[in-house]
Design a protein that fits this description.
By secondary structure, the chain is of the alpha+beta class. Helices cover about 40% and strands about 20% of the residues. Bound molecules: uridine-5'-diphosphate and magnesium ion (MG).
Length: about 140
């Protein structure tokens, strides 16, 4: 593995709108390496655990409802300083506030449906990756 890891989720609305390919391309073009990628649908239990930190927020129920509403694409990513540099690539939580060249600005449709998730710390990147990927679904490669 080169550098550190982070976890991305292409959220249901972005998948539904057909943005998966463009977003995966953007991730690679921005210099991140993909070490795991799959389409899946979150159960309510998994979504509640994934977003447990937000359990007391007023947006929690709507967020869980949305994240379980259709298929998502989960991507395990590695790069130097992966968490911070990926957060810069996706942009602010509200797509309207995100810098124009970011994934959320380009593909997000609302605060909730902001196209993509990115881990907020190294600790959460590992926790989230372990929640969504089995060890045999991860492929660390030497840089050629
Ligand atoms: N969210 C929402 N309403 C809000 C704030 C957040 O629906 O007022 C959703 C949004 O999809 C966001 C997710 O909850 O990506 C997690 O919120 P967080 O504050 O952790 O933002 P992020 O780390 O994703 O930028
Ligand atoms: Mg967050």
């Amino acid at each position: 593995m080169v550098g550190s890891i982070t976890l991305a989720i292409i959220k249901p609305k972005a998948v539904e709108l057909g943005h998966t390919g463009a977003i995966v391309h953007t991730i690679n073009a921005a210099g991140f390496c993909i070490r795991g990628l799959k389409m899946m649908r979150m159960t309510r239990e998994l979504a509640e655990e994934f977003y447990a930190v937000h359990k007391k927020s007023d947006f929690f129920n709507g967020l869980v409802e949305f994240m379980t509403s259709g298929p998502i694409v989960v991507v395990s990513i590695t790069a130097e300083n992966a968490v911070v540099s990926f957060r810069n690539t996706i942009g602010a939580t509200d797509p309207k506030m995100a810098a124009s060249d970011t994934i959320r600005a380009k593909f997000g449709t609302s605060m909730q449906m902001n196209a993509i998730h990115g881990s907020d710390s190294d600790k959460n990147a590992i926790r989230e990756t372990n929640l969504l990927f089995a060890p045999e679904e991860i492929f660390d490669q030497k840089r050629s």
